[in-house]
Amino acid sequence: MAEYEQMLAANEEWAKSFPGSKPVAPGRKTAVVACMDSRIPLFGVLGLAVGDAHVIRNAGGVITEDTIRSLTISQHVLGTREIVLVHHTDCGLQKTDDAGLADLVEQATGHRPPWAARTFTDVDADVRESIRLLNESPYLLSKDICGTVYDVETGRLRQVEP
Ligand SMILES: [Zn+2]
């Protein structure tokens, strides 16, 4: 059975206890920006329920033009005010570097990506860089930001001092 078939079957079960529709504006007025890592089950990690928060994920949980696009909509249209960043230990982005990834893609496909992978070595420094980029953005209404690092070995979240 393909993974997607198992997922569709799992959804049949899950929908049986679905809590029902919620308002489109997140109830806890929060947007989470997190890495796409498969070991971070954000709803459990942060105690979130359906309808509580926006969740914006990408490789590294980095602040890109598209992250800003989503946060701008989140704040201006859907009323969120707090931003929680979730980076983590043992991130895939620590396993390569920007030039190395571009080389890898170019060798495999013949095309060098025009964007940077945004790799990093120091996770705390990367969280602070994300906070800096958010603070520099002129489009956001609120810059109430909490940066964190999730430990994939213990399940614990640690706040990063700005
Ligand atoms: Zn990651």
From TrEMBL:
Family, similarity comment: Belongs to the beta-class carbonic anhydrase family.
Give the source's domain of life in one word.
Bacteria
Query: What are the protein's UniProt keywords?
Result: Metal-binding, Zinc
Question: What organism does the UniProt record list as the source?
Answer: Trujillonella endophytica
Q: Which cofactor does it need?
A: Zn(2+)
**Protein name in the entry:** carbonic anhydrase
Q: Which InterPro entries does the UniProt entry name for this protein?
A: Carbonic_anhydrase (IPR001765), Carbonic_anhydrase_sf (IPR036874)
A Gene Ontology molecular-function term?
Answer: zinc ion binding
- PANTHER family in alphabetical order: CARBON DISULFIDE HYDROLASE, CARBONIC ANHYDRASE
Amino-acid positions noted as binding Zn(2+) in the UniProt annotation, renumbered to this chain: C35, D37, H88, C91
> Which SMART domains does the record associate with it?
Pro_CA
Q: Which SUPFAM superfamilies match?
A: beta-carbonic anhydrase, cab
Instruction: State the function annotated in the UniProt record.
Output: Catalyzes the reversible hydration of carbon dioxide to form bicarbonate.
